[in-house]
Amino acid sequence: MADSIIRGLGDGSGFKDLAKLEKPKEGLGEAFSERMRDAVSAVDALQKDSESAQAAYASGEEVDLHDVLIKVEEADLAFKAMMEIRTKLVDAYREVMRMGSGG
């Protein structure tokens, strides 16, 4: 059975294309971290806007309850999406580390 798996790999000519791959461009890590920082800042801004709308409503200011609820839901949805992205990134990192260690 192992022989059939090895034969299924062929002559290895598919690996020749790996040498043609370009090295990663410098600065990509900084661009990624900057995008992540901007996304977290946007979620934080939505959270703060939601909190201020709730505080205004609770203090008796003339605020539409519908608008307050929309802001709360927007902030909640943005936070949940951010947490899902974080979870996917952590899972991907763990997978890469597992592949690197051969396990």
Q: What does this protein look like?
A:
The protein has about 100 residues and is mainly α. It has one domain (about 20-100). The protein is about 70% helix and about 0% strand. It contains three helices and no strands. It has helices at about 1-10, 30-60, 65-100. Helix 2 (about 30-60) packs antiparallel against helix 3 (about 65-100). The longest helix has about 35 residues, at about 65-100. The chain is elongated and about 60 Å long. The model is unreliable at about 1-10 (pLDDT under 50).
Keywords summarizing the entry:
mainly alpha; 103 residues; disordered N terminus; elongated; 0% strand; single chain
Shape call: elongated
- The helix/strand class is mainly alpha
Helix content: over 70%
From the alpha-carbon coordinates, what is the Rg to the nearest angstrom?
A: 24 Å
Mean pLDDT: 82
| Strand residues, percent | under 5%
Helix count, DSSP H or I runs of 4 or more residues: 3
* End-to-end gap: 22 Å
How many domains is the backbone divided into?
A: 1
Compressed to H and E, one letter per element, the order equals HHH
Mind describing the biggest β-sheet? none
> Are there runs of 5+ residues with pLDDT below 50, and where?
1-9
E-strand count:
0
